[in-house]
Amino acid sequence: MKRSAVLGITLFTLPLLGLLSLAAAKVVAGLTELALTAPSAATPAAPVAPATTPVEAALPPVATLGDGALSVTAKVDRSKVSQRGDGLVQVQVQLTAASAAGAERVPTDMIVVLDVSGSMSGPKLADAKSAVNELVDRLGAEDRFALVTFSNDATERVSLGRPAGVARRALAGLHARGGTNMDAGLREGLRASLRVFAMSGGAGRAPRMVLISDGQPDTEAGLADLARQSASFGVPMSAVGIGPDYNERLMSSLADHGAGNFFWATADQDLSAVFDAEFAAARGAVAKQVSLELATPAGVQLVDAAGLPTTTTLDGHAVVALGSLYGGQQRSVWLTLRVPTGALTEVGLGALGLRYTTITGELAAASTTLSAVTVVADRDEAVAALDPSVWEQAVVQTRWGALKADVAERTQRGDQQGAKQLLSSYRQDVSTTNDAVGSAVVRQNMADVDALERELDANYEGADQASRRNLWSKGLVVSSQADRRSGASPLYRGSR
Questions:
Q1: Contact at 8 Å (CB) between 359 and 288?
Q2: Which of 14, 359, 20 lies closest to 197 in space, CA to CA?
Q3: Measured torsion, CA atoms of residues 379, 383, 386, 388, in degrees rounded to the nearest 10
Q4: With contact defined as beta carbons under 8 Å apart, do 74 and 4 qualify?
Q5: Whole-prediction pTM value?
Q6: How far apart are CA 5 and CA 75, in angstroms?
Q7: Percentage of the chain surpassing pLDDT 70?
Q8: Lowest CB count within 10 Å: 139, 315, 397, 460, which one?
Q9: Domains, the chain, ranges and CATH?
Q10: Strands (E), 198-350
Q11: Helix, strand and coil in the chain, % to nearest 5
């Protein structure tokens, strides 16, 4: 059994409440132009002291913060890379929040941003209104709710608070008409979410913003940045697509930038279930504004972070925002690194840091040094240095998830042969390595590849091909998110 480099972290806390309250107050004061000055991951609030030596064994939970404990491990899938290979190394970062059983429920601020454009007419809007009414019924004594709608422009229908009667009257009066000015909707939603900090600085509360839309926005420009800014204030933004016509590429991207969840409300997964999941995550939160920071030496590149967007610090470090963790949650994040293979030498992978905010408003931060890998001339020697258990998880959670997203994109463009070529290349590359590793999990994955190709071909036969391919592709995108964001949401599983 190969050894895996495992990260052990010691945490410290710093006051953060005053900083966030002051920044939010400045933003709320200038909402006309929404000139946001949120503290960004690109400007870290405190230095992170690296550990002096890498740790080679799993450690117990590293600290108890607020009502829960957060533990982190990092495992590298190999200790050697081939000079003739691509130099890719996978690092699995596993975050685990201890069970919050017996802890008090965290008060929640739920901001719903609802599309009421013309395409939402009929059952779509009726179902959305019904689900939001149920959400209002679920509010606890300390929970707050706000409702923003958008079509040609945006309106805050219900201000952040506990206005149950006002909310029901506002929902009853909604009608679908006009265009899809999503930019205005997100801006108005961000204004509502920032009032969380204007009121209380966010300490002791777990805010969430949920965007619900079925259509194509008038423009996509700037939408991802608005989602990112919401997350930077500790307000994760989830995105829900409704019906068969929504833009899954855009909506999943907004959820990624907003450090929230991505859902597709279908006939067998209604909006009420989505709100239940969002409430459960928020009310059980033990850590907010969770982010990873990776500092790599010269020549080592971060190729991918589970498909999530990254920002860059002034020091050139890559930062991945992960949103909140709730009690008992396990979240895996896969980092793909590329090391230089020009020389037969040992290559360090750099330092990995963790930051998050406790429910009480303190900042926790720590880091450690990742283990090195060695560049060798012989490919078989490099394959023999794989950790089978980590490598097989990397295949089925990252590469398989990314493949499904790519196949979905090709299928939406009607490029059957391009999608089949992606499947063929993946099958050949992964199976060749698995001939040496012998993973049963990966052998099953090869069977899944064959099944996916049969489904692909079937969607290019018979009647209603375009419609069937559209629905099939959207299901693949949801499944891809479930794979690459393992553990991010209890509703991700179940759709391939």
A1: yes
A2: 20
A3: 170
A4: no
A5: 0.84
A6: 5
A7: 81
A8: 315
A9: 12-102+294-376 (2.60.40.1510), 108-283 (3.40.50.410), 388-484 (no CATH)
A10: 206-213, 237-242, 259-265, 285-295, 301-305, 310-312, 318-326, 330-338, 346-347
A11: 35, 25, 35
**What single string gives the DSSP state of each residue in 165-203?**
HHHHHHHHT----S---HHHHHHHHHHHHHHHHHHHTTT
Is residue 176 within 8 A of residue 125, CB to CB? The reply is: yes
Say if CB 188 and CB 148 are below 8 A apart.
Answer: yes
Reference 282, options 489, 133, 15, 93; nearest CA is 489
Indicate if the pLDDT at residue 106 is higher than 70.
Answer: yes
> How many whole angstroms separate alpha carbon 47 and alpha carbon 181?
40
Residue 346 structure tokens:
């040992």
The predicted pLDDT at position 218 comes to: 94
Residue 61, SS3 per DSSP: coil
- Tell me how far apart the alpha carbons of residues 135 and 232 are, in angstroms, rounded to a whole number: 25
Contact assessment for residue 174 and residue 116, using Cβ atoms and an 8 Å cutoff: yes
Are residues 361 and 204 in contact, defined by beta-carbon separation less than 8 angstroms?
yes
What count of residues does the chain have? 496
- What's the CA gap between 287 and 204, in Å, rounded? 11
What separation in angstroms does the CA of 211 have from each of 12, 137, 275?
Answer: 34, 19, 11
pLDDT for 324 beyond 80: yes
Nearest to 209 by CA among 174, 265, 246, 261: 261
